[in-house]
């Protein structure tokens, strides 16, 4: 239901609204202005068509010559302003969380592994060991990536430790085989 109670003002307003004309016709001077604009535009089109058809080069009107320059000037100013904003306003640097305890332990394991590998005598490893060594290296990289994704998984740290131990043991066997020592 409507909570608004009708008042005498409502009836008077309704009567005035209904008395308004349904369609308003613009005054004659508006039509005359529109006709003059249409006539000018048609005359300009005919002039441009005649100029385009004539073989002799005709100088373009001053307005037409400066439009592209104004447009280019506006674009240039806009680009300069955008560049100035980018230079002046400092870009926020993404916050990287500090490495977790597990990631630090994995880094320590990797350092110890590198030291142990450096302590081994350098020798050309036999070709039959290479696929297994590459597989263990790929496995260690995958485990490090998994630790980065899930830094709370102690199981992954154990897997990384076992992988490094296997890689070190296999490398030692390959060095012994390359130097002719019994394994």
Characterize the structure shown.
The protein has 6 helices and no strands. Helix content is 71%, strand content 0%. The mean pLDDT is 80. Helix 4 runs parallel beside helix 6 (154-179). It has helices at residues 8-19, 28-53, 62-88, 101-119, 130-149, 154-179. It is mainly α and 183 residues long. It is elongated, with a radius of gyration of 42 Å.
Radius of gyration equals 42 Å
**Backbone structural class:** mainly alpha
Strand content is under 5%
Count every helix, treating DSSP H or I runs of 4 or more residues as helices.
6
Topology:
Elements: H1 8-19, H2 28-53, H3 62-88, H4 101-119, H5 130-149, H6 154-179
Provide key terms for this protein.
183 residues; elongated; mainly alpha; single chain
Brief sketch in words of this structure:
By secondary structure, the protein is mainly alpha-helical.
